[in-house]
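User: I'm putting together a teaching handout on how multi-component assemblies are represented. Below are the sequence lines for each component of a complex, exactly as they appear in our records. Could you produce the 3D structure of the whole assembly as structure tokens, so the students can see both representations side by side? Please keep the chain order the same as the input.
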Amino acid sequence: MAALSITQSDVMPSADAQVIHGLPAGVELTAGEFVYHDPEVDYIWRKVYAAAPFTGASQGQLFGQIRGIVLNHAYTGQPVSVAVNDTAFNIGATLVKGETYWADGFSTPGAIIPTGDLDFDNDGDIDGIYMIQVGIAASTSILVLSPYTSEETG
Amino acid sequence: MANIAITAANVASSATGAFAFDTFHSAGAEITAGQFCYLDDSDQWQLVDADNATGTEATRTFGIALNHAYTDQPIAVSRIDADFVVGGTLTAGVTYYASTTPGAICLIGDLSAGDYPVAVGVAKSTTVLNLNPTAAGSAL
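Assistant: Of course. Below is the structure of the complete assembly, with chains in the same order as your input.
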């Protein structure tokens, strides 16, 4: 198992997607990355990283933060478009139908991993990261994008 | 002369221009930050090419891309901005035009008979452009 390998040019929302346009990128962001902004702090998109515990500023682990998937590419300060909810999101990667996908907290900020990778060291339990759901695969290419976290760690 | 060399990471709208950029239309082709675009008949952004009568009409909507998108992905395009950071080196006081290289920006002297001039804006300094596109709608 591994983080999703995303082809940026294939990332595409459906016509029914809820998209936030125009807020700036806090770092360079590319299509397919999982990002958040915190409306209590600012309105800048940053990469989600589910590592626990965190010190200092969070990286998208908190309940009240808005999360979504980047739809284009922006350098720091440039506006970016982010899908925050979509029942038929083409994520540009090969999925396993019925699988739930989560924010990576082990290696790569912004990356998306399947449930099996939550047990990163293969010792039979989930390895102490925040459980931040990205969505559930409706097919091998379509994700029901529905980001959620309860702020619980696995 | 040649087209203005643009560093995509340095392209930025001003604080006031941030309220005038378009995010309601998608890219009709792959477009990179800093490229000069027009809105086509399908309401998608395309690269302006001064060789072509199509996309250089006086009635078109123009702008400069603020980020990068592949075909059909959403893109942000600044349509007007008095303090637009174009991401390249300009000459203050000089007017810049759409190039015959799709999406690029050049000087009027780089165009020739038969090309369709579209003024992109006037340089306020070596980095800032008063972005206010205007097309002649006819060939040189």
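A couple of points students might notice: Residues 32 and 70 of chain A are 5 Å apart (CA to CA). The first strand of chain A starts at residue 18 and ends at 24.
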